Amino acid sequence: MTESLLPPGVLPDFPPGWVWLCGAGPGDPGLLTLHALNALRQADAVVYDALVAPEILDWCKPGAEKIYAGKRGGKPSAQQRDISLRLVDLAREGNRVLRLKGGDPFVFGRGGEESQTLVQHGVPIRIIPGITAGIGGLAYAGIPVTHRDVNQSVTFVTGHDQSGETPGSLDWAAIARGSQVIVIYMGMKHIARITGALRAAGRPEDEPVAVVTGATLAGQQVVETTLARCTDDIDAAGLEPPAVICVGRAVLMRQALDWQAMLAGTAPRDTDPLGRGRPAESA
Ligand code: SAH
Hints:
alpha/beta, about 30% helix, binds S-adenosyl-L-homocysteine, five-stranded mixed β-sheet, five-stranded parallel β-sheet, Cobalt-precorrin-4 Transmethylase, domain 1, Methyltransferase, Cobalt-precorrin-4 Transmethylase, Domain 2, 2 domains, about 280 residues, single chain
């Protein structure tokens, strides 16, 4: 398939004994990169995570070994070690090993640790970035992660640390003060604590929040809410992870830019949601 898309020589050959660590994007197979597709077409073994959409594996070459490496309960650190060492073994057996991860492998994806293990064991690697859920997933909800009238910075945070608790190392008050837009990964479990910390640090009760689950997939759901109402609205809508949660006025832009609703024939709710009162193209 890539063969017909690109002239020969543009995309690399996958040498046996190598591990390519590759982002699969947030779900929609169309968001794979050409490098990812090129890797799928050549890999002998594909080690994939729970968040990799099943359709993407249909692009594996015939006979490729597909190995599920999602973590379900148990001891995450031990399992992580097993996955990393499995990659080393598969490479040493002479396979072309594709380690496929949801989103981008280096964004809350343990891609750094896995690559480091490979390097420490002398296994050659290539890193293929992917579209991360906190950017591409929000774009599918019609939310620009930066927008000139709203923010000059954005902070990506994880709502879990290795222990499964909200990260003790995070200074939520500093984040609340310093970042106009905050994008939270893995935030559903501790959403009440996170929104509470942001409010306690002075973020307004009515600050816009969007919760996007299953972003870019057919079952994508978006709830627009506020810092004060967020936890109740998540419960009321019955939302389940995975979700990216965006805090900040960028969320208002969805009223103009919900392109999926427009595809379905619904007119934009408000073409000037920030109330600029002048055309967007004027500086
Ligand atoms: N490496 C991934 C993130 C892995 S951590 C990336 O770059 O996107 C897992 C978290 O990512 C989930 O808890 C959720 O917060 C987010 N996520 C991944 N895919 C998602 C999707 N399709 N919709 C919403 N959130 C998603």
